[in-house]
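In practice, a research group might receive sequence data for several interacting partners and want a quick structural hypothesis before committing to experiments. The following worked case mirrors that situation: the sequences arrive first, and a predicted assembly follows.
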Amino acid sequence: MIQKLREKEYRITPQRLAILRILAESAEHPDVEKIYAQVKKNFPTTSIATVYKTISVLKDVGEILEISFGDGSNHYDGNRPFPHPHLICTRCRKIIDPDLESLTYVTDELSKDTGFQITSHRLDFFGICPECQKNAEAGDK
Amino acid sequence: MIQKLREKEYRITPQRLAILRILAESAEHPDVEKIYAQVKKNFPTTSIATVYKTISVLKDVGEILEISFGDGSNHYDGNRPFPHPHLICTRCRKIIDPDLESLTYVTDELSKDTGFQITSHRLDFFGICPECQKNAEAGDK
DNA sequence: CTGCATGCAAATAGTTTGCATGACG
DNA sequence: CGTCATGCAAACTATTTGCATGCAG
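A structural hypothesis for the assembly, expressed as tokens:
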């Protein structure tokens, strides 16, 4: 993964390494603020601008995926740099990556019907996760 | 549709009527700027804040749907105030509402597998529409 | 060394809010 | 006629940009 940066003539700085690591290791889909907070633990001088710039580079290289949920800020996924469904708990904001094979079939059908050349997609489900359902029953507010 | 506003104790102002009309009549999915521009044709004094406030009211009442694509601003749909798929041309920014029945089945399966109580979803496809494909072949940049 | 990356601050875009004035019901 | 909506401007959040300094190659 670092390879790809080297190949494309990008410099490897400690900050970029740190951001890369965070994106590669986090199972969830952090937003810029979360990444920023993490990076600062190791490099307190890092500015948020650098995070944005690095993310922009990684997007261009195709190593991370930008995901925009309805909540103001964008999130990023460094583990699966390709479109995949999300399952978001609207109560605890947890995000899960479910498996759904049937989707490629749907895409094909859609492409055939409309003449569109489909390059990408986004599929997000919103709901309440099992834990939050329990908490709700327990009278939690 | 105006009924619903009356019922819920909201006042009917000319500005609200204008915004409502635009949302109900536009087949596409305008963003706030577009709505604002339209409203100003009839009510030049209207402020963008009023548009936002009215939209917020309509969202609460459930008469319009907020859609956030990846492009900074939110879009709104006053014709189908319930989740439905979108097909977006990344070249000319056109947005189409395709038919896809198979989706409810997918939702059910997902719900069963994860224990989530799914309340909503969002499904957007990105690609190139037939016209833009032609233009691209013709050497258009 | 040379240039690209960093980090700060200022600029920008989209959206929200506070408050005085005005209009719906 | 009281209350809620409007409209202006200021506040806010997420993001981008300009520029001087610093470090990677």
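Before designing any experiment, note the following. Chain A touches chain B through 38 residues (CB under 8 Å). Residues 9-11, 13, 15-16, 45-50, 53-54, 72 of chain A lie near DNA strand C (CB under 10 Å from a C1').
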